[in-house]
Amino acid sequence: xxxxxxxxxxxxxxxxxxxxxxxxxxxxxxxxxxxxxxxxxxxxxxxxxxxxxxxxxxxxxxxxxxxxxxxxxxxxxxxxxxxxxxxxxxxxxxxxxxxxxxxxxxxxxxxxxxxxxxxxxxxxxxxxxxxxxx
Length: 134
What we know:
The protein has helices at about 5-40, 40-50, 55-70, 75-95, 105-120, 120-125. By secondary structure, the chain is mostly helical. Helix 1 runs antiparallel to helix 5.
């Protein structure tokens, strides 16, 4: 097998591993945005506990789902990842302010989003040159 063919096969493998890593955090975020759109009583209670007014459910759901759409588009995926990082930073800060261990969850989601993007997008690997023996 030629060097170019090996590189292409490795790149395809990284691409699919990247999508595998990306699926879980995306499902979490889509469920979160959908829950906010539902404006169910449990979501409103959760928002009240966090100190957020229920009137922010729709705007936050719109922001979250728009960032997800940007992240899913290969051309805008880096922008989507940056915006989702900011969004998840707000979630982390909210939980830290309340002294809750739930603050770890948005950090893990963000790390998995970036890891998935790193693995499937060579532009990110160029920007963040981590040596890998894959």
